[in-house]
Design goal:
The structure holds two protein chains of two kinds.
Chain A (H helix, E strand, L loop, with lengths): L4 H21 L3 H25 L5 H31 L13
Chain B lengths: L2 H23 L3 H21 L3 H26 L12 H25 L17 H8 L4 H23 L9 H9 L1 H15 L1
Helix pairs in contact in B: 1-2, 2-3
Classes of the chains: A mainly alpha, B mainly alpha.
């Protein structure tokens, strides 16, 4: 008997909550982007685990493939925005991103 | 349940969860990137357990090989200012929000666990060709062909957009009047002080 499905889902839920809590409590833009990557990874793990239960097709794995591609694009554009913001304000704190305030 | 499989599962999930906690909690972003790397490696191990060999390889190639390296490059470019200073402004609201999210998440998990049958769901046997490159590639180029091509277009747009955003304003340094005025100006105070000291000495 293999490791049951629930264990994988619990690990994925714990990973997702770690990422979400990190996104809420941290203010460093780089750490925020890393927390987003954590959450995307947790969702990927859930998709792959459920696809393992329904072995008739590969829908979950295909979804995961596309999510990985989109996460890579998101990281590239997000880090470019962080660099542009740093050039403007010389900081990476998300609280200082108030250029449009007032 | 196979002891060895359970041990591998425990190892991978502990690596992933510890990495996630380091990512979120580390003060230094480089340590955070290393934590993200460990999470990614742990999840790749879990993919291997779930008979997704192709995705495990993609995970290591794309995440560990590209995304984490990109993070490290940006941290290197920012230098010491990548580590933002801690201050208490609005900290209470953020921590209360995070605690509320944690409580609701744990509550949802507990509710789901209560509706589950007491015996855990056993996974079915893996058919041959499940999760291999051949079968995923076949599906990718037949049923998922349109999104596959669109993701190629998305990556192209992301590359161009990242370069356009990160490049900033490019100024030719030879056109700046300050560029050739500066080297002429900067030696003068030192020359003056040198002259003064020479005068004082004489």
């Amino acid at each position: 008997m293999t490791v049951p499905l629930e264990y994988f889902v619990i690990v994925a839920a714990a990973l997702f909550m770690t990422g979400a809590v990190g996104f809420l409590i941290r203010r460093n833009l780089l750490v925020l982007l890393m927390s987003i990557e954590l959450m995307l990874n947790a969702v990927n793990l859930t998709l792959v685990a459920f696809n393992r239960q329904h072995v008739g097709g590969h829908a979950g794995q295909i979804f995961t493939f596309f999510i990985i591609a989109i996460a890579a694009a998101e990281a590239a554009v997000g880090l470019a925005i962080v660099l542009a913001f740093f050039r403007l304000r010389s900081t990476v704190r998300s609280d200082d991103a108030d250029l449009l305030r007032n | 349940m196979n002891k060895l499989e359970l041990a591998f599962f425990g190892l991978c999930s502990v690596i992933a969860l510890l990495g996630a906690i380091v990512t979120v909690g580390a003060k230094n972003p480089i340590r955070g990137a290393m934590g993200l790397l460990s999470t990614i490696i742990g999840i790749a191990g879990l993919y291997l357990m779930l008979a997704a060999e192709f995705l495990a390889a993609i995970q290591l190639l794309v995440y560990a090989g590209a995304v984490v390296i990109l993070f490290l490059f940006v941290i290197m470019l920012l230098g010491p200012s990548a580590q933002s200073k801690r201050d208490a402004r609005g900290a209470v609201a953020r921590y209360v929000g995070a605690a509320a999210l944690l409580v609701s998440g744990l509550g949802a998990m507990a509710l789901v666990m209560r509706t589950q049958p007491s015996t855990p769901t056993a996974l079915p046997a893996v058919p041959p060709q499940f999760g291999t490159i051949e079968s995923i590639g076949h599906e990718l180029f037949s049923t998922a062909l349109v999104p596959f091509e669109l993701s190629g277009a998305l990556l192209l747009v992301a590359v161009i957009g990242a370069v356009a955003v990160a490049r900033g304003k490019q100024v030719d340094p030879t056109l700046l009047p300050a560029a050739d005025a500066k080297p002429a100006q900067t030696p003068s105070p030192t020359a003056r002080t040198a002259g003064q000291t020479k005068e004082a000495r004489s």
